[in-house]
Amino acid sequence: MPLPQNNPERSPSWEKLKNLATSVQATTLIDLFKNDSSRVSKMSLEWQDFYVDFSKNLITEEAWNALYDLANFSELDAAKQAYFNGDLINETEGRAVLHTALRSKHSNAKVNGKEVNHEVAEVKQRIQALSEAVISGSKKGYTQKPFTDIVNIGIGGSDLGPVMVTEALAYYKNHLKVHFMSNVDPDHSAEVLKGLNPETTLFLVVSKSFGTQETLMNAQTVRRWFVEQASEEAIPLHFAAVSTNLTQTSTFGISDDMVFPMADWVGGRFSLWSAVGLSIALSLGYAHFEALLEGAGAMDQHFAEAPLAKNLPVKMALLGIWYTNFMEAETEAIIPYTQYLHRFSAYLQQASMESNGKSTSRSGESVAYQTGSIVWGEPGTNSQHAFFQLMHQGTKLIPCDFIGFRTSLHENQPHQDALMANFFAQTEALMKGKTLEEVTAEFAEKGVDLKSVEHIIPHKVFAGNKPTTTFLIESLTPYNLGALISAYEHKIFVQGVVWNVFSYDQWGVELGKQLANRILSEWQDKAEFNHDPSTQALLKRYKN
Ligand code: F6P
After folding, report:
1. CA of 218 to the centre of ligand 1 (A)
2. Are 285 and 386 contained in the same domain?
3. Closest protein CA for atom 1 of ligand 1
4. 351 and 260 both lie in a single domain
5. What pLDDT, in 10s, does the model give residues 182-197?
């Protein structure tokens, strides 16, 4: 079944939401709390180790209800069924979107009538076998030494997920050192190779298409580096590949038993759960990889079954729509209060912006409303000393997700308490702000002559009323991380359904690739430049 096509602006709730936004804009969070003593319990949600508090958002119950109506208008239930069943909902590429099947214990999803379960189990077994053999040292390199280093060569979805997860779960890492080579920048490959020993390094060439310029160039560079020091014959022992393009992997010289297939129903930016996660299984051990999948699977089940008002990904998605389409927010910030999640927002940038950065509807028309918002963020407390100034006193509305963990992984309670005091204080400060009267009273209390600070007082005022959602999670385990990622993935799905766009293609990345290839061939053929005047001048300056 294809995804339903509904222009959200034709929903009766669209106008209603516009009016509700106008009235919310005229009130404050403080007033919303004053007017409803049960706001926190009504607007928070518990699921397993997660407590998510939506109450510090500029939204009313009436607006939540109108958003649920909007979701129903968009036929979210039917869309969800099509998604989990393996229907070809990535219509412009004729593909299913089934990363959920990779972490499901009982998926009976079928793609073109064929069950996918068996195929999933088979690849997982192979990931387990290779990772266990490399970790234990039973699989050796060409000089019979065990492996010490793993290099993942891939970009976009073939890089960001594994980087983010291996960093996020660094606490659980084993002795293997994992490196990531993504950029075609010659300095990136050179830096990654620096200090590596070919005898003890395993290279994973990860590319769904096996046609990505950056990955193929990097893989060839690494191959040359390797052969110069080892030999052609040693390649099958030191190179593995993850791809849907099995012809190209064998042309590269990777032996069949080191090729991990990927189904075309796994989108690049949702692929860390597939063999693309090989570097995760290698660096954390297979059991942790499995726990990551399990957590994601549990969140999938919650998303599939929970009613709208108790459904975490649905609420995250609808809140984003509220801010984007009715409150005129342009961006959303993700602020994890753990250094381990320092690549989380970079990962979500691709997941969200490559998915919902679209302006053509599923019916093929230009949309007349905003879609995908800009995702950004850095961990707290560092970000407090960087961009929080703008969040507190700037002119922009930036809804933020604050993600914190009740227990730290390394026991050091004083540090954890300091971290979490900041975590709670920031959302409070963003909401409450500080009035002119409060600033004046503070000066007066200190005995400062108010006349002498008159010109400073307005600069110390905080308007407050800045919205945040707090995720308080028990601890950063592989299971909880899997669930957290899955919640954001489904948020993206729900938003795409409501915005009536195709979330699982990425045609918008193609034009730049085409033009880069044209420039390269112009250089190769020493052809006349034929570009706009600005680009022409820049190209001349580069190849002078
Ligand atoms: O150019 C965008 C993109 O296609 C992403 O969607 C994808 O994750 C990335 O490139 C890498 O693609 P591949 O895994 O096929 O090399």
Report:
1. 14
2. no
3. 509
4. no
5. 999 999 999 999 999 9
